[in-house]
Hints:
single chain, alpha/beta, Methyltransferase, Cobalt-precorrin-4 Transmethylase, Domain 2, binds S-adenosyl-L-homocysteine
Amino acid sequence: MTALRVTLVGAGPGDPELLTIKAVRALRRATVVLVDDLVADGVLRYVRRSARVVHVGKRGGCVSTPQAFIDKLMIAEARRGGHVVRLKGGDPFVFGRGGEECAALRAAGIEVEVVNGLTAGIAAPAAVGIPVTDRRFTQGVALVTGHGSEYEPDWSALARSGLTLVIYMGLARVHGLVQALGRAGLHGTTPAAAISAAHTPQQRHALCTLATLADTIASQQLASPAILVIGDVVQVAPAWLAAQPRSPSIMCGSG
Ligand code: SAH
């Protein structure tokens, strides 16, 4: 008997051209695909017509399918013997619950294959020319969640670190995040960016400073999903954007 298996596939940030070849192969082979709500529709074009596509969202603030139900569904589908793909936005292992899903599948005796995807925290800044680890400005990058929970990052340690801060799920709490980072010692003039719906036709961005970030996002009505970038690497964006004027951009003062 062949082993039961689920393939956890990262769909990248939106543009289907950013899928890996391995991801496309897994999608073409799939008989059932369990899809997160941040996965762009265009990605599903690689799924066979005969395959079953089940949408199981976990989007913050929306009605979503409980994780335990998703785990049960994956296990049940794998036991039916199909090629099961669990398709997630970005990378399954970056704020994607991929680790938890692997553990649940393995506990049920099911093999897991993981196909990495391009994570929004790298790809969204890159969409406006921001190299998150540019050594002229920083020693590295920290990927953190701004969602707020018991997993609240240690903002003081991050502010002291000099690392580029890339914040996932931070849009709804941006006011609180800016205040927390200010209290933690980050200067209001620190360059900041918000990139919304990166690598999709809806992509928009704002370049400003930590002090003006919340107001800029509100006044420009930047929508979720969005990545926030805080750090000197943001300074690279204007010149890059000037060289390729493509998406509607919002720039504000450095105050
Ligand atoms: N596993 C995903 C992250 C899921 S958490 C990954 O690796 O990218 C969801 C958060 O990801 C969103 O709140 C937003 O902060 C970010 N995100 C996902 N897709 C995005 C996109 N196309 N543009 C900007 N941010 C995105």
